[in-house]
Specification:
Length: 268
């Protein structure tokens, strides 16, 4: 009985300590952010990045947007800049004497991996990942691949959405869930290089056709109606309100394009 009570006591102590640590970190962030705003305003530069009252009010918004990710790095960067003071460069306030470079780099590095970190935490909880380290490694590799297509910004938005709303695992990968708009944004971006790649990437995430790539390539290659089909799927990925209809990714906004394509197929 004593062992059980002692175990419960240690568990409660651990939970309380975690909550206090989290509260302390958030309080440090808020204080550092406010000091940063005050120091930046006191420099009196002509080109104010953001008015003091808006800067101070934004400190609460930053905390909510970050969702606990990179708070320590942000706080360290803010604290350093506030302590160093600001000087004006071409009218804009910057940390005096080139200070806080290492803190800024640490914050940037943290933000680069923040999307993967928050996504992998949810993926691990849903069974879409087996361990945190391998998940983050694969996620970062995917981010680098999207960078080559200049779609890393859109992919980061999707990772952040999954990290905040949770991951539903379907057939070993994250399903759309409540992040349909973000999925379509990635598809839209990828479609600029190759429309079938973008459309089928989104179609796969929505769980539509199993052989989208083959179907799309064949339809695009059709000398008679390929252009109409391309117009249709371009419309779908750029509407941002698409869903699976009869096994195909479709958006009601694109009724005209679908009618044009069907009319072409029927020879009308």
């Amino acid at each position: 009985m004593k062992t059980l009570v002692g175990g419960i006591g240690l568990f409660v102590l651990a939970v309380v300590s975690g909550l206090l640590s989290c509260a302390s970190e958030e309080a440090q962030f808020k204080r550092a952010c406010l000091d940063y705003c005050d120091a930046q305003a006191s420099a009196g530069c002509e080109q104010v990045t953001i008015p003091l009252d808006q800067c101070r009010a934004a400190c609460d918004q930053y905390e909510a947007q970050l969702g606990g990710v990179c708070i320590a790095e942000y706080a360290a960067s803010f604290e350093c800049a506030a302590a160093a003071g600001f000087e004006c460069f071409m009218g804009f306030p910057i940390p005096a004497g080139g200070a806080c470079t290492s803190e800024a780099l640490a914050m940037s590095s943290c933000l680069d991996s923040a999307g993967c970190t928050s996504y992998c935490e949810e993926a691990l909880a849903s069974g879409c990942a087996t361990d945190m380290a391998s998940c983050e490694m694969m996620c970062q590799a995917e981010r680098e691949a999207y960078e080559e297509s200049f779609c890393d910004f859109e992919y980061d938005d999707l990772l952040t959405c999954w990290g905040q709303s949770g991951v539903e695992c379907v057939d070993g990968q994250a399903a759309v869930g409540s992040c349909g708009e973000e999925v379509l944004e990635v598809g839209d971006c990828l479609a600029w290089d190759d429309v079938c790649t973008g459309y089928c990437w989104a179609s796969d995430r929505f769980g539509c056709s199993d052989n989208c790539s083959e179907e799309c390539t064949t339809n695009i290659a059709d000398p008679s109606c390929g252009r109409d089909y391309e117009d249709l799927i371009e419309c779908v990925v750029r509407d941002y309100e698409a869903s699976c209809v009869d096994g195909q990714l479709f958006a009601s906004f694109c009724d005209y394009e679908r009618e044009q394509y069907q009319s072409c197929l029927s020879g009308a």
